[in-house]
Amino acid sequence: MKTKLTISPAVAAEFILQESVVAFPTETVYGLGANAFSGNAVKKIFEAKGRPSDNPLIVHIAEMGQLPSVVATIPSYAEKLMEEFFPGPLTLVLPKNKKISNAATAGLRTVGVRIPNHPVAKKFLAECGVPIAAPSANISGKPSPTTWQAVKFDMNGKISCILKGNPSRVGVESTVVDCTGNLPVILRAGGVTLEQLRSIIPSTRIGKHHIDGKAKSPGVKYRHYSPMAYVFIVSGIEETVPMKSSAYIGLGSSDKKKFGLKKICRDEHEYARSLFHFFRECDTKKIETIYCESVSEGGIGLALMDRIRKAAIQ
Ligand code: AMP
Ligand code: MG
């Protein structure tokens, strides 16, 4: 299959209407989208990614007016979260509308829904006119793509179109919040922080990933975000062994140690924005060991440490 590269949301949307798969930019990471009403179109996403079919996709819409075609009911606390954080890096899990294909939700009766805060994504979703089911646009298990070049590296020849945009501003995925119970429960940390959620709904809590041995959010059980190298979590650059085949990413340090690749970030936000891109650069340079400095788990640090820990699982 030939993959078309375009900067036109309208051109990309035409592929969606032909049941094809299109990669598009968002503020979190690049997504791999298909018509969420069409099981046939959604199945092509799982094939292109090599994604296990029991891992549900997030459904993306352009504006609130499309919500009734995606979800069945909305509790009042979820409405408050939407008012504050839509559009943005927040996904709410709600009872699903029957029109959303079962392939998109991996057979669950719930659906994760999000409105991206990104001008190109918004134009594209508006042109499509239908809700777009979209996971991150990487091969399953690999770091999520934050540039169109990274999408091309993974998906060239496997999908119909890549809608090009700038590098993703947030760099980690959306926060997934279960809104099917009495209180909001975080299933996956992400771009909207626990503190931000609690400023609107103080009873928001972090979920236990497994309830009675069954994954509440199926995606969290899979190996994720993994570069080829071994990833080690260190508390500082002093703990590392610098070599040509090793790399370091972390916050400010005056240490002059030389690595094959090194990235010192200004703050946690830059660290989050850079992490997946850094992992991919390490793969290109055949780095064998990556040291990641641990950060405190406040604010975006919670999502950042979640991604680093998953990358460090061997
Ligand atoms: P990705 O699209 O690769 O960022 O992954 C989407 C994440 O959202 C995965 O961890 C999924 O398990 C989670 N997710 C999507 N839909 C649902 C749902 N209906 N219930 C629980 N988790 C969901
Ligand atoms: Mg993903």
Describe the structure.
There is one protein chain. This protein has 314 residues and is an alpha/beta fold. The chain folds into two domains: 4-206, DHBP synthase (Alpha-Beta Complex), CATH 3.90.870; 230-312, Rossmann fold (3-Layer(aba) Sandwich). Helices cover 27% and strands 21% of the residues. It has helices spanning 9-17, 39-49, 76-85, 119-128, 148-155, 194-200, 268-284, 301-312; strands at 4-6, 22-24, 31-35, 58-60, 90-95, 110-114, 132-134, 161-163, 175-178, 185-188, 205-206, 210-211, 214-215, 230-234, 246-251, 261-265, 289-293. The strands form three sheets. The chain has an eleven-stranded mixed sheet with strand order 1-8-2-3-7-4-6-5-9-10-11, with helices on both faces. A four-stranded parallel sheet has the order 14-17-15-16, with helices on one face. α1 runs parallel beside α4 and α7 runs parallel beside α8. The longest helix is centred in the last third of the chain and has 17 residues, at 268-284. The protein starts with a strand and ends with a helix. The model has no long low-confidence stretch (mean pLDDT 94). The structure holds adenosine monophosphate and magnesium ion (MG). Adenosine monophosphate is lined by residues 55-58, 93, 105, 108, 110-112, 135-136, 173, 176, 187-188, 217-220.
Keywords:
single chain; 314 residues; alpha/beta; DHBP synthase; Rossmann fold; 2 domains; eleven-stranded mixed beta sheet; four-stranded parallel beta sheet; 8 helices; 27% helix; binds adenosine monophosphate; binds magnesium ion
